[in-house]
Amino acid sequence: MDPIKEIEERILQEIESTKKAIIELKELTKPISPDCAIGRVSRMDAINNKTINEAALRKAENKLKGLNNALLNINDADFGKCARCKNDIPLGRILLMPHSRFCVYCAS
């Protein structure tokens, strides 16, 4: 299979799964009503979980933006090159993290 076609299919799969995750996370980050009949400790736990889910939602939304950007630029000459060092990004990394614009060394 053509590597670009393989990458494109992987990006489309990631976009679909990320969209589903965003929908679920939006549901989990709805405001917690103060009149909920849960105990004080349970309410604090629910607020903490909401904060964690909000961070996961932001991360998923950023990932979706990166995936859409990668899909738009898949045919560019610079696609698959690290945005920092300009070296080729290995195909395995692109397939694993198609939204990443950096090689392993520059990403860390």
What does the model show?
The chain has 4 helices and no strands. With 108 residues, it is mostly helical. The protein has one domain. Helix 1 packs antiparallel against helix 2 (40-72). It starts with a helix and ends with a helix.
What attributes does this structure have?
single chain, 0% strand, 108 residues, mainly alpha, elongated
The gist of it:
The protein is mainly alpha-helical and 108 residues long.
- The gyration radius over C-alpha positions equals 18 Å
Describe the main β-sheet briefly: none
Count of the domains:
1
Q: Tell me the β content.
A: under 5%
Low-confidence stretches: none
Give the CA-based shape: elongated
Distance between the termini: 31 Å
Number of helices: 4
Q: Structural class of the secondary structure composition?
A: mainly alpha
Mean pLDDT: 91
Spell out the blueprint of helices and strands:
Layout: H1 3-28, H2 40-72, H3 91-96, H4 104-107
Helix pairs in contact: 1-2
